[in-house]
Specification:
transcription regulation; Tetracycline Repressor, domain 2
Length: 186
């Protein structure tokens, strides 16, 4: 492994720790965030000099990672049930970034170009519409509603796991079955 790869991995781990530190301590100073993330103040200052830079860097990292996770799920080509499993699994590789985006979404969304959000929403809506047409997803609600339900269930359960309300093991299965079958008894 080369030094560049180690640096990228270290940066990713530090960003994940900082994402959780910001979620858990939203009013913390940079020094307090560094301590919560387990890095020195000097390391964090070399990485980002202000809270605003840190939040922007995390927003960029989260957007890139979760967009890649969505891309890897093959929403346009794989059978809908398989693509949904991949979507969940790939997004669960970045729970800290999901928690960060969920926590800071309202502030971040105001600064994002509307077409960025619309593109993501359209992609998810198209996936759920394709799944409806294939008979995998229910048709009595709109594809847009299914998109919102998926994100709400996913982000809510990721947050619950982060807070210790449920175990990480089996989380993908819980997200999938709750989304597909609801909470009624079989």
């Amino acid at each position: 492994m080369n030094a560049h790869a180690v640096t990228e991995a270290d940066d990713s781990r530090m960003l994940a720790a900082l994402a959780l530190a910001l979620v858990d301590h939203p009013r913390a100073t940079l020094q307090e965030l560094a301590k919560a993330a387990g890095v020195s103040k000097a390391t964090l200052y070399r990485f980002c000099r202000t809270r605003e830079q840190l939040i922007q860097r995390l927003a960029t990292q989260a957007s890139e990672a979760l967009n890649q996770a969505t891309e890897d799920a093959c929403l346009e080509t794989d059978p809908p049930a398989e693509a949904l499993r991949k979507l969940i699994a790939r997004h669960l590789e970045h729970p800290e970034l999901t928690a960060f985006l969920t926590h800071y979404w309202n502030d971040l969304a105001r600064e994002m170009p509307p077409e960025t959000i619309e593109k993501c929403e359209q992609r998810m809506d198209a996936f759920f519409l394709r799944g409806q047409q294939a008979g995998v997803f229910r048709i009595d609600v709109t594809a847009a509603t299914l998109s919102e339900l998926w994100f709400s269930i996913f982000s809510g359960l990721v947050d619950a796991e982060r807070r210790g309300r449920l175990a990480r093991a089996g989380l993908a299965h819980i997200v999938e079955t709750t989304f597909l079958r609801g909470v009624s008894a079989p």
